[in-house]
Amino acid sequence: MGKSQAIRLLGAGLVCLGLVFSGPVRAAFQPFVEGKPIESSMEDAVASVSEQLAAEGFDVAGDYAPTEGVHVFVVTSDALLATAARSDRGGYGAVLSVALEQDGESVRVSYQDPRYVAHGYRLEDDNEPVFQAIAGALGATGYFGAEPISEANLRTYQYGFGLETFGDAVDLGELGSFARAQEQIAERATGGDLGTELVYRVRIPGKDQVVFGVALKSDNANANGAALVEAVDLEAPRAYAFLPYPILLDGSSAETLNLRFRMALFFPDLPMMGGDASFFKLRSAPDAINALLLDVVDGKVHSDEGSSGGFGSF
């Protein structure tokens, strides 16, 4: 995904217009926000970002290195958790990812736009205060990832006819109880034998609902998180804040979002076919990821969520 295709809003212009930390709410949104670059080693940048996030009320739920020269934080906050608790299947929106990427002498900082996440995941809030807080922590020098999309289109997002929407979850299976399911998913994701790593585990307040973040580290590139991002995003800062991959446990039933929805949501301008980067390159990835996460949950599946052929088939 060349950044030439994305609208870049420079920080100076944003400050002059009063759109970064105050002023009118945006009418359209882009998936990712670029923060202030950090002139330091990755190790020092990780420590600095962790401190800045904590100062603005964010808790680090987990972090990991999906590939060399990249570090991903996953954060939550009281505001994110409160919104998640009020929203159907709100666990998907209980966290945000922040990516650090070494680029020469600088570390590039980027994060998921909380407002884009709110609308794409149909949350009962617009996450504007969360955006103000994370922009205060990390800066907001520009947006990238897609042409701006309206709130209405994000809340009904579908990449193309016949492809999944937010409502078309992948059934990962049912386990005997909420308590058993939590422990089994955490244990199996952590084990390493499946090519996964448990990055975070966040309980939604007032609900028997937990969202897990699973690092996809399979030797199969179709189920490897870093490989997926690098296949379609060719210039720094790459959208590593797309990672890790979520599993939502609601009661004793586990689900995830089909890659044909989730990746298209965060990479909506990517063409179906052609060029150096397209969804056709990922045509085998939806089934590969579903199979891997089914192994992680290891529950009783009630519905067949087999692919219609991946990206490129309707």
Summarize the structure.
The chain is built from ten helices and 13 strands. It is α+β, with helices and mostly antiparallel strands and 314 residues long.
Give the helices and strands, then pairings.
Elements lengths: L10 H7 L10 E2 L2 E3 L7 H14 L3 E6 L5 E7 L1 H9 L9 E8 L2 E7 L1 H7 L7 H11 L3 E3 L4 E2 H5 L13 E6 L3 H13 L5 E8 L5 E8 L8 H8 L12 E6 L2 E5 L1 H8 L18 H13 L17
Describe this structure in words.
The protein has 314 residues and is an alpha+beta fold. The chain has two domains: 147 residues, TT1751-like domain (TATA-Binding Protein, 2-Layer Sandwich); 129 residues. It is built from ten helices and 13 strands. It has a six-stranded antiparallel beta sheet with strand order 3-4-5-6-2-7. A hairpin with a 5-residue loop joins β3 and β4. The chain is globular, with a radius of gyration of 18 Å. The two termini are 22 Å apart.
